[in-house]
Amino acid sequence: MDLFDPYYLQQLAIGLSLGMTYALMAIGFTLIFGVLNVVNFAHGEIYTLGAFAGLVLITAAAPPIAAVVFAALAIGAFAGFSLERLAFKPFRRFTDEASLKSRAMRESTLLSSLAVSIVVREALEIVFGSQMRSVPFEYLINTPVRVGPVILVTGDFIILGVAAAMLIGLQYLLTRTRIGLSIRAVSNNPLGAKYVGIDTDRTIIMTFVVGSMMGAAAGILVGLYYGAIFPAMGFVPGIKAFVAMVMGGLSSIPGAVICALILGISESMATTFVSSGWSDMVAYGFLILTLIFFPNGLFGAGRERV
Amino acid sequence: MTLRLAALTATAVVGLSVSAHAADVKIGYQLPLTGDTAQYGQDFRKAAEIALDEFKAADKPFKVEIVFEDSRSDAKEGVNIARKFVDDKAIVGVLGDFTSGVSMAAAQVYKEAGLAQLSQTASHPDYTKISKYQFRNIATQAQEGPYNAKWMASKGFKNVAVIAEQTDWGQSVVAGYTEAVKAGGGQVAFSEFFNRGLKDYRSLISKIERAKPDAIYTGFFYEDGAQFLKQLQQLGVKTPVYSTSAAYSPKLLELSGDAADGLHLTSNFLPTNPDPAVQKFVAEWKKRSNGAEPGQFPAQAYDAVRIMLAAVEKAQPNPTRESVRDALAQTKDFPGITGKTTFDADREANKELTKVEVKGGQFAPVKE
Amino acid sequence: MSASKSRPQWVLPVLIGLLVFAALPAVLASFDRGYFYQIANLALIFVLLSASMHLVTGVAGLLHLGHAAFYGVGAYTAALLTTKLGLGFTWTLPLSGLVAALVAFLVALPTMRLVSIYFAVATLAIGQMLYLVMLNWVEFTKGPNGIIVTKGLELFGFSLSGRLATYYTVAAVVVLCVVAIGRLSHSYYGNALRSIREDDQCADAMGVRTVRLKMEAFTLSAFFAGVAGSLWAHMTGYISPGDFKFSESILILAMVVVGGLGSLPGAVIGALLLILLPEGLRGLGDFRNIMVGMVMFLSILFLPKGLLGEVSALRLVRQQLGAAWRRTDNGIGIGWR
Asked: Architecture of A6-293 per CATH?
């Protein structure tokens, strides 16, 4: 088998670009998980909302693409803020020790975010219908680009650029700014953060706003990349982002991105050897193997195991 | 004695009332109105409402009502609805469901209860084999596969790659086509299934291209089809693509733009057909959906509803579940907008297929 | 409290028994609507699924995101045994449970050391892999074509396919299983599982064999899910992979959480709510699923510990279902304090 067969290079490139779309979503997902330590089932809906916000703006005003992304970011910020107020804040009203220890209390936000996601998706289906909606062709970011033996599309470079910018920006935010410092503090120990005078409430809102902006931006970019926007579009990338986050070790955003790429590549490479229907099997098998040999994820640091 | 007399009078009265004016009936329609496949169910409801309104406008001596129930394409809800319909004694016939899975699960209930079920889309090979109560108004792949195989063979394609979605329908697409090709002495270079809703087909396309087929035969609905065609264009693949009537939807063109040009497919419904019945439906459909054209599925649903209504009318003045079933089974040369429909002994509708090619962003019928 | 103490402990079980085996069937029979029977049976099956997940997610505190797959393994076992070997419900019922348990045991071997969210994502992956097998291994499972299950409910050749007979069969199996799950979760065994949930390292240090216990809970829960699968397969007469996809796992999880994590009566109530509600709201047309989401949201907002939280559920069980502390005649204390 010739490894430099252009076929394998092409599959590798496809896998990378597929992985990048998962990574876009995984970044925001991991950020929010890191602070709250609960799965936010509604992240996929934020992604969908971002895509629809962009689509509505495109059909209404046909603005330049930057404005579309900006609209998605604004909706994402708003949606993140509302989501936190609706589905997460109410459950912080119980601060007594019994509630803090209760498993049911800790997992209640799991359900509240799930319920919010059901309501949002159903509402989108009623407003927009559940069919795929097309994006005007001049907005699509899928013009083919030939790089040596491999064919890519413009969107691959845009998504790569955006993901890199997000990653670097986020690392800067988390390590160099005050708000980032407080996010890390709350993520590390919420009670301790509170005692040293950090406004945990505000920090959590900020995390949601930033994470959801990234989710919404991912939604509109992927929507423009594939040229199809529909209410259920956040579901599959949501699962993949979740898997990538855990594989990466929960606390590490670069780890999540790398694992998202691994997932994408393993899916596209698997298509070579098995039927396309089975390719997810390889990705999940890979996940199980990772967890068996690295029970804390590939890039997971020692972490509170609660 | 008095009892017997009362019974006698009762029968007489019932008999009289029936012969005097025909009975009002209900038809059940189970379909996904919410959930991931709601777009299809919503279209079916719209088509059914058009058919029903036309029926009402014709001023028949009896009233028909259609009861719509949402199944979400979920088997457990589909079975619940089936039980509900069976309980309603006024319901003499049932339409739906959309997916074969739900239709098959519900069919077990209708089989037991003896209620005719006519699906506009259920394509599972075993669906009509469940009992004498299952009918469908769709060309099966046992019919469409050989038709397309012949068409492609006439173009000189010897080595064909076949891909289809991993559903019961996709399975029948590959089976129907492969059998026909083998019977004709040809060969299938490559066949594969993909999961419905897959977004990225580029890996699969690269893999197909490595097998260097003359043409690609595909079994997909318009959503997957549009993604596939767009990505085919992105990768610069020029291999001709053939598809089935399931992809025949104006939304395919809307989603894929010029990437759909050159796609060959079959259909049994053309909105451009000058037949007045077709034009009437198309005009009414456009009026109710902001000027969008109907695709293959709504047309099938429209015909299915009209076939059911005709059967109910035929079963008058005393329609029962059994007589409606029998009337349905006798449907012969029903002049629908998807061609003439006749149910054969296996309750399958044999459809006339038309060859279509996408040219300049339009579906255009082709001769050869 | 004193009033309830004076009430004998057999009152509640007898009442529930009467409700399930006498009052409800009487109501169903008086309406004689297949629809009501169907919903009652479906609700019972999901009661069993929710109760079985309660064992893993509620009691042992392990987030399980792949439960529907074991339900599917059970259903497929029943369907394949029926179509390939001609076995009837009498045999497929226990075998479905056993096969599901076996599959669960095999996948649990390497993964049960995982904790918290790592465990959750591992179960998600296992669930998805099993689903992919059902969908794609066409030669064996008939893939998306699904399987028509030719035999209905029966017991040793005696057909139980009438409406009332079906109800009684499903109810008997489900009640039996739920009682078994109740015995497991309201016992020292259940306490050991709860200790894993509260602090697995501490439990380990105290001599609780956490990995083994987790494996047992996971396997047992799969057994009961498999039993539910066999009920569904024989009751519906047709199964396909779509019945066991990820969203079903989430539905079952939602039932357990709405009812109250760690509370078996809660899991039962949650299942009843989430099966009956969508049917009850049919009148709302296309808006009914929004309402289901709203009800879920409001219920968890106002009762974050669930409709019947663990503490109240345990109190109920201890006082009313005979698990309270008492001394036997020879002076040995048994039960819960």
From this structure: Orthogonal Bundle (1.10)
